[in-house]
Amino acid sequence: QQQVKQSPQSLIVQKGGISIINCAYENTAFDYFPWYQQFPGKGPALLIAIRPDVSEKKEGRFTISFNKSAKQFSLHIMDSQPGDSATYFCAASFTGFQKLVFGTGTRLLVSP
Amino acid sequence: DTAVSQTPKYLVTQMGNDKSIKCEQNLGHDTMYWYKQDSKKFLKIMFSYNNKELIINETVPNRFSPKSPDKAHLNLHINSLELGDSAVYFCASSQNRDRARADTQYFGPGTRLTVL
Predict the structure, then answer these.
(1) Chain B residue with the nearest C-alpha to that of A99
(2) Which of A57, A109, A72, A71 is nearest to A87 (CA)?
(3) Which of A31, A93, A97, A98 to mutate to test the interface with B (most CBs of B within 10 A)?
(4) Of residues A2 and B35, more confidently modeled
(5) Which chain B residues have a beta carbon less than 8 Å from that of A42?
(6) Inter-chain residue contact A46 with B105, CB threshold 8 Å
(7) A6 interfaces chain B, CB cutoff of 8 Å
(8) Which of A19, A99, B19, B98 is the most buried if burial means most Cβ atoms within 10 Å?
(9) Strands A62-67 vs A56-59: parallel, antiparallel or unpaired
(10) Three-class SS state of A112
(11) pLDDT digit string (tens) for B62-80?
């Protein structure tokens, strides 16, 4: 059972464009929603995270939008750069359990 | 300074062998994890230890046994390796001083295990 569904599987965006990756979750007990970025041959690294008490969080060019009623959250990368080319994972966890449930990943390619 | 380190980075072995992967974190974190990333890049938690105590044990074959000699180390021992064990294994750690809030998990560089 896939508790966190992520789309699209892959994404090609022109340099300077907006990259949008969407995730949907099923379990309403989830209360922490991080996004991880993974470059080839490296471990995932936290990019940005949100908790359900806010609907949006912005850090530089990266924004998470969170819709609690729809059980959806998305990552927006503004002014996408070739250096942003990586695999992005959304995730969710429960308070007190520290168990991250990951989405299936989105491979982003930003063309120069 | 490397925050979460794993050895070896690559491991190639024959079916039926026993192998270990070591993980160390120098962040002073209380909780450590093992994740498995399969060929389709799907990441799934296997185990979690908090202060040397096992707190998460997902449905993982008994051939996999984590060992935490102290809170800075979490090793993964795999017996009787099978072809399906081929994957990238990531160690991670997090602070988790406040059980009421989830904390950032910091991942190691991964160990690519290939079973022939």
Answers:
(1) B45
(2) A109
(3) A98
(4) B35
(5) 109-110
(6) yes
(7) no
(8) A19
(9) antiparallel
(10) coil
(11) 999 999 999 899 999 999 9
